[in-house]
Predict the 3D structure of the following.
Amino acid sequence: MPDELSEVLDTAIYKEIASQAVYEAAQQKTDDPGAKALLKELARQEVRHAEKLKELKQKGLAEQPWHQDEIADLKISNYLTGGDTLEGAGLQDTLIFAMKREEESVDFYRRMMGMMREEAARQLCANLADEELGHKKRLETLYDQLFYGGE
């Protein structure tokens, strides 16, 4: 596997493991049962994402079917304040925190894409940004349903 591809995958794996650790640690910082359940599920998702990336690194990019549809950015988190800490956070602030984390990941991979020389590495960054955007969209949809009665 070319060096840039390997570096992108290593970085992505590290980011998923770090997110898992954040969500696991945050479970001890709240008494809100909804927030705890959400944090537990987010930690599990990060484990699955890291495993998927490790498998991708072993098998190679040709084996990976990437989501090709355009993913809409609902931009809900762009207009929300709060969610800066998970210390004592309830469900709403926990969702805001998670949405903003996913937004940061989308931005990170898009910036990283611009630094890559190899087309395969740029495409991998674009695909990773789309994956994170999909995660953000799921969280924003849940937020909309819970707090605005959206469908």
The first helix runs from residue 3 to 26.
